[in-house]
Amino acid sequence: MNFNPADISESMRKRKRGNKIVPEPDWGPNNPNVTKFLPYHGAYIQLSENNTVACRNKSFANSITFSERPLQPGEIFLVEIEQNESGWSGHMRLGLTQLDPLEMYRRQSIPQYALPDLVDMGKSWIYGISKAHNNILEYMLDTRVLGVDQGYMYVKYGNRPEFNNYNSHIETCRGSVPVSLLKPTRGCDDILPTDMGSRIGVMYIPVDDKEAEMHYIINGVDMGTCAKHIPYKNTPLHVVVDVYGTTKKVRIIQLYHVSTLQAACRDVILHRMNKRDIPALPLPKLLKDYLQYGT
């Protein structure tokens, strides 16, 4: 590993206030490229870090959250599991809904559970994330070859994205996404989908001018079609994340904003070394805390 702690940007060392590192303004409220949770959610959800982190503060239910804005065709919504809580059964639920989150909030009708409650309300495609990486659902795969050009992959109607070592980026409707961001940080390659550090994403791909198919991306692997015949042009599709059961806290991984130097340094370091080795680095405690926890 060719990593020298002295190469960390001086800006990271200087951005301190009191005994805490002050993050650069990555997640400003007026930044249109930042992906957030909608501030209308289940009763036991607490949002933080400008609505990019969702944590269940009690029980195991009443923890449904929604994307702040509708998902676009081909756009990836990605979260990382930051904290689990033992003593419960089941795990995070993830999917899409055409129900209006704001209207549900106004009517106090956000259900306790995404499954089965929200699905039973109709116009929702949601599944539970399981420990079994390869058999979360019985998928119907479309493996037609994609066009690849200079390490970039292009998502086209009816195609299944292949996130492999030959593609450094995937082109989406909102811009180019490094494939490395879809994967866990170094040292977490063998984790289960439900483990801390796991990165779980959802997207939908139109197959014609009326219907789309929903895909999960789990730790950098596209799991194929898990829901078909979604009438994506009828009504906007919001992402649903139910922070359920053993899953206690999730963070949105920003795929489409322009990273600051501080955040970019952290990403590079975490992809080149095991996160468990950070405490042994010859760095100030504040920097090590930022590398480990992002705050």
Polypeptide structure, described:
This protein has 295 residues and is an alpha+beta fold. The protein folds into two domains: 1-23 and 262-295, no CATH class; 36-256, Jelly Rolls. It has five helices and 17 strands. It has helices spanning 10-14, 101-106, 114-120, 261-270, 285-293; strands at residues 16-17, 20-21, 45-48, 53-56, 64-66, 77-84, 93-97, 124-128, 148-149, 152-154, 169-172, 175-178, 199-206, 212-218, 221-230, 238-242, 247-252. A hairpin with a 2-residue loop joins strand 14 (212-218) and strand 15. Mean pLDDT is 79; it is low at 1-27 and 133-162.
Write the layout of secondary structure elements.
Elements lengths: L9 H5 L1 E2 L2 E2 L23 E4 L4 E4 L7 E3 L10 E8 L8 E5 L3 H6 L7 H7 L3 E5 L19 E2 L2 E3 L14 E4 L2 E4 L20 E8 L5 E7 L2 E10 L7 E5 L4 E6 L8 H10 L14 H9 L2
Parallel strand pairs: 10-11
Antiparallel strand pairs: 1-2, 3-4, 4-17, 5-16, 6-13, 6-17, 7-8, 7-16, 9-10, 11-12, 13-14, 14-15
Pfam family, one: SOCS_box
Organism: Dendroctonus ponderosae (Mountain pine beetle)
InterPro entries: B30.2/SPRY_sf (IPR043136), Neuralized (IPR037962), NHR_dom (IPR006573), SOCS_box (IPR001496), SOCS_box-like_dom_sf (IPR036036)
In a nutshell, what does this entry contain?
By secondary structure, the protein is of the alpha+beta class. It has helices spanning 10-14, 101-106, 114-120, 261-270, 285-293, and strands at residues 16-17, 20-21, 45-48, 53-56, 64-66, 77-84, 93-97, 124-128, 148-149, 152-154, 169-172, 175-178, 199-206, 212-218, 221-230, 238-242, 247-252. It has two domains: 1-23 and 262-295, no CATH class; 36-256, SPRY domain (Jelly Rolls, Sandwich).
